[in-house]
């Protein structure tokens, strides 16, 4: 606002309203108002003229509000914020003025164009406003309208200029992406473009690889941070999880402000990497809802701050930068592929030419080899055979000088059955020495020897000069090039075939050596057939010796076979994993024990049938290798818990049997069963984790009715079933009532089917309370069977049979429907109901639609419904379960993790699932308030810390005492459930009396 003061004589203005001028008692001349209004160029200056002309308005704390965008964007001439109440009053006054009604005497509409531009004078006392002449207010309103129009033009010009600047920047970005500049040059160009739009001295670009979950800083410029990340390596996302870049990429939301402001914007703890900036602005680069990277600018300069306009502008530019980067990368990838394809075509063309030439050469070689093979079968003499061989080789190679050398039978000499040479027509046999022929036979491969190679071989002592070409002495010209290939009989070298040249223009190549190798194979094959008759004679002579050797060998094999049979017998009777006897061995022991018992009824024995509780959870969560390790440890502990001559066997999976040979009294079997349970419950380390294993044991004592092994095993199995039905972690001895109950399973199954038809299953509700005030916040629905003759039955009395006969799903959905129906009244004043969902219901993809259908049918708000799942459910198929839980969460149905801490799910695993609540298992709550509470407090503290960081509610199960309640409340636990607050009851029990009667 300009400095304004009226001069009584001349009308000059030189002081500011609100300062010393308003303290004067004399009013300025009326004629000066119009002059100073014309000088005012902004709404603030018009307001200053008004307050200078009417000091009483200033003393009354009057204010002028104006806007170019309607009542919702009012500005104050004093810069004060316009509160919502005051904005509502002004909006009402403007609406009344438009209808010709004065609503608020404290407000005067100076100007209103009926759309967006307006100006209002507010006098809290209404006194000075009422004393101000209307002509003054009208003059101020007219000038205010003109200044608002000027202000609008300036704003329009500014926005147009900003839009033009942005358009130029986008065109420049597009040009860079299509240019031939290298990627570093293009990135520097992008930096320069963004620097024209905002302060960007410190700027970096980071890209996110979703498949590898890594970050790459492709461009980084910082005037303060000297430890910039390398631009040529990928950083794991875990290194930046708690940094601004990590939050920016992971959440896909722009972040802006000082460090403290940024801490309030992120969802977790914030770690500052590098130098701490005064102001920071980062925006994600998005494509189809996925984050592909981010742009970040920051400042270390006092007074330079980023605004919302900068954030919006950088966010708009980010999309175009991403497009430019993708286009540049696509062009680079296309160029690389073109180069690779061109290289491949060139290589393919060269390869094709080589193949054509090789094919022609191979056809010629094949024809020659066929000729040589045919010669081997001819009846001609050896001289003619060798001459024909020479002629055939001459069609492939330069073979004017050609010979074949063979090692004599005694292996001492080298003979030459065929020798053709221009300078030495004949070559007699000679002792084996250091000639070229012997060198080829020693190396067992063809080779080419020219003059330099000949010198090198001579210097290394591989050959002697006088034996270079197989002659004792040479009076003719020296050999210029020599090529030879060994002759093989099976794997034994029997001779050599060689060619040599005395002319420098006729040199041999490695390819010639390769051809000669093929010829050598054919020659050797022919020679082998000629020698076969002699070999047959020698073989007959050796036959007797070999028969004797074979007889000794068979004797040794028989001994080895007997050992193998012994090992096989052990393997048949023992488990390969644990080394324990198997079911076959145990059945044999039980059969012998029964026979002995029938002979001596006063010497009974006992059979213990053992099953590891929740073994499937170990396999599902830690893997089958960990499960195998657990079975081995259980086997060792079972063996250490037994007497001699008792036996333990692994029957199958996690089932074991223990045979107690002599049991003088029933209590002895129970004592050993308890000893086994105690041994198994000791902590064991499996796959790097400490576990406690529990088991259920069924005991059968031999009796006269046990005539077969199966009868004994059946009684022990029935007792084991009873132990599991009674809650696991215990042993149970068989009696006749169990047999009757087992036989009645079919009857219970028929009753279950009938109960489903008439709807005898209903939910009982147990309250969930807020620990701070013990107010009910929800109810857990628990299934009960209203049996017509046996009364209300709990799940342990019928669910096992329902599982076996496949009726448990139908029972679940009948209970879910009833729970939703009763939940309407239970949640009428707030809260929610929870239902327990087993892993079976996640095997399909319709859990969400079915639950929503039940809620709609019962007219229950889906947000009033929650499901409870166990850790085993989450670990069965984590990806599929997470998707279904997310679908339920999208439909407002929350999820609670039940019995948390009893499975093998790590604390850090829960963040993968959209959970609303963790329910701490009662096993950790029970020790609270007692002496052994430190371990439970540590676990509960860890769960509370995890849940707090993930914004998940925590509920403690099984609270039965005030000490437990107070301990949990002191630790910060929010919610609880247990008999202390109420046992499961029908819905009517928890409703007010009037609602209960209405229901």
TrEMBL record:
Record organism: Dokdonella immobilis
GO molecular-function term, one example from the UniProt record: catalytic activity
Gene3D superfamilies recorded: 3.30.450.40, 3.30.70.270, EAL domain (3.20.20.450)
Residues annotated as domain GGDEF: 603-736
Annotated protein name in UniProt: Diguanylate cyclase (GGDEF) domain-containing protein
Span list, region Disordered: 1-24
Pfam families noted in UniProt: EAL, GAF_2, GGDEF
Domain EAL: 745-998
Entry cofactors: Mg(2+)
């Amino acid at each position: 606002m300009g400095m304004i003061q009226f001069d009584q004589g001349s009308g000059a203005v030189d002081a500011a309203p609100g300062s010393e001028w308003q303290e004067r008692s004399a009013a300025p001349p009326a004629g000066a108002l119009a002059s100073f209004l014309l000088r005012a160029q902004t709404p603030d200056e018009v307001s200053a003229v008004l307050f200078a002309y009417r000091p009483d308005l200033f003393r009354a704390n009057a204010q002028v509000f104006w806007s170019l965008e309607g009542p919702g964007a009012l500005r104050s001439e004093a810069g004060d914020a316009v509160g919502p109440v005051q904005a509502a009053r002004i909006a009402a006054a403007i609406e009344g003025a438009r209808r010709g009604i004065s609503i608020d005497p404290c407000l005067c509409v100076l100007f209103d164009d009926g759309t967006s531009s307006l100006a209002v004078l507010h006098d809290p006392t209404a006194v000075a406003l009422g004393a101000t002449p209307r002509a003054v207010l009208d003059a101020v309103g007219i000038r205010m309208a003109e200044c608002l129009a000027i202000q609008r033009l300036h704003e329009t010009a500014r926005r147009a200029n900003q839009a033009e600047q942005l358009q130029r920047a986008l065109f420049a970005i597009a040009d860079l992406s299509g240019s031939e500049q290298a990627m570093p040059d293009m990135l520097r160009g992008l930096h320069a473009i963004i620097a024209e739009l905002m302060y960007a001295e410190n700027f970096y670009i980071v890209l996110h690889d979703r498949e590898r979950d890594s970050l790459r800083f492709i461009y980084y410029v910082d005037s303060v941070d000297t430890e910039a990340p390398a631009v040529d390596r990928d950083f794991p996302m875990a290194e930046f999880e708690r940094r601004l870049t990590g939050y920016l990429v992971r959440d896909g939301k722009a972040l802006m402000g000082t460090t403290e402001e940024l801490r309030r914007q992120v969802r977790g703890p914030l770690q500052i990497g590098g130098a701490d900036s005064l102001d920071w602005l980062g925006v994600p680069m998005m494509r189809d809802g996925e984050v592909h990277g981010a742009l970040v600018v920051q400042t270390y300069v006092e007074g330079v701050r980023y605004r919302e306009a900068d954030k919006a502008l950088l966010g708009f530019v980010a999309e175009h930068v991403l497009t430019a980067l993708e286009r540049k990368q696509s062009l680079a990838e296309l160029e690389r592929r073109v180069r690779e394809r061109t290289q491949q075509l060139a290589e393919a063309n060269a390869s094709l030419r080589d193949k054509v030439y090789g094919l022609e050469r191979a056809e010629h070689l094949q024809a020659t080899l066929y000729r040589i093979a045919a010669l081997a079968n001819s009846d001609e003499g050896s001289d003619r055979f060798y001459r024909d061989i020479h002629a055939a080789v001459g069609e492939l190679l330069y073979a004017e000088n050609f010979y074949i050398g063979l090692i004599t039978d005694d292996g001492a000499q080298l003979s030459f059955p065929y020798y053709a040479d221009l300078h030495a027509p004949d070559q007699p046999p000679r002792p084996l020495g250091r000639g070229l022929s012997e060198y080829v036979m020693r190396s067992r491969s063809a080779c080419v020897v020219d003059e330099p190679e000949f010198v090198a071989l001579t210097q290394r002592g591989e050959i002697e000069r006088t034996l270079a070409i197989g002659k004792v002495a040479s009076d003719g010209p020296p050999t210029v090039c020599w090529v030879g290939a060994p002759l093989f009989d099976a794997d034994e070298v029997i001779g050599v075939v060689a060619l040599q040249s005395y002319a420098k223009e006729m040199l041999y190549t490695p390819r010639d050596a390769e051809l000669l190798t093929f010829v050598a194979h054919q020659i050797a094959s022919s020679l082998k057939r000629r020698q076969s008759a002699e070999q047959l004679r020698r073989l007959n002579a050796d036959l007797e010796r070999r028969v004797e050797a074979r007889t000794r060998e068979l004797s040794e094999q028989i001994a080895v076979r007997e050992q193998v049979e012994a090992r096989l017998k052990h393997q048949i009777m023992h488990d390969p994993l644990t080394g324990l006897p198997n079911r076959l061995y145990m059945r044999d022991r039980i059969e012998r024990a029964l026979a002995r018992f029938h002979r001596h009824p006063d010497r009974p024995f006992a059979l213990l049938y053992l099953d590891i509780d929740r073994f499937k959870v170990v396999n599902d969560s830690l893997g089958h290798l960990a499960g195998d390790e657990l079975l081995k440890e259980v086997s060792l502990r079972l063996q250490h818990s037994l007497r001699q001559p008792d036996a333990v066997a692994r029957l199958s999976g996690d089932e074991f049997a223990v045979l107690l040979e002599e049991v003088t009294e029933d209590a002895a079997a129970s004592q050993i069963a308890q000893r086994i349970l105690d041994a198994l419950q000791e902590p064991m380390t499996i796959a790097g984790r400490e576990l406690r294993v529990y088991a259920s044991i069924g005991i059968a004592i031999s009796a006269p009715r046990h005539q077969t092994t199966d009868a004994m095993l059946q009684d022990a199995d029935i007792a084991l079933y009873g132990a599991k039905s009674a809650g696991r972690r215990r042993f149970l001895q068989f009696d006749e009532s169990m047999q009757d109950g087992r036989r009645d399973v079919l009857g219970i199954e028929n009753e279950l089917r009938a109960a489903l038809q008439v709807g005898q299953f209903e939910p009982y509700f147990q309250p969930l309370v807020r620990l701070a005030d013990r107010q009910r916040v929800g109810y857990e629905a628990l299934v009960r069977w209203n049996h017509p003759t046996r009364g209300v039955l709990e799940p342990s009395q019928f669910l096992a049979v329902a599982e076996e006969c496949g009726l448990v799903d139908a029972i679940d959905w009948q209970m879910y429907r009833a729970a939703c129906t009763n939940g309407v009244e239970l949640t009428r004043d707030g809260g929610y109901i929870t239902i327990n969902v087993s892993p079976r219901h996640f095997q399909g993809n319709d859990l969400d639609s079915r639950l929503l259908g039940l809620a709609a049918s019962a007219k229950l708000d889906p947000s009033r419904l929650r499901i409870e799942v166990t850790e085993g459910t989450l670990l069965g198929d984590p990806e599929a379960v997470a998707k279904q839980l997310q679908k339920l969460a999208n439909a407002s149905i929350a999820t609670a993790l039940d019995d948390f801490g009893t499975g093998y799910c790590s604390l850090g695993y829960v963040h993968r699932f959209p959970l609303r609540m963790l329910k701490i298992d009662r096993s950790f709550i029970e020790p609270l308030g007692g002496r052994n509470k430190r371990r439970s407090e540590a676990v509960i503290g860890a769960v509370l810390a995890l849940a707090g960081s993930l914004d998940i509610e925590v509920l403690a199960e099984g609270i039965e005492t005030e000490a437990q309640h107070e301990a949990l409340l002191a630790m910060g636990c929010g919610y609880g459930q247990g008999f202390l607050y109420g046992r499961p009851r029908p819905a009517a029990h928890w409703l007010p009396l009037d609602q209960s009667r209405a229901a």
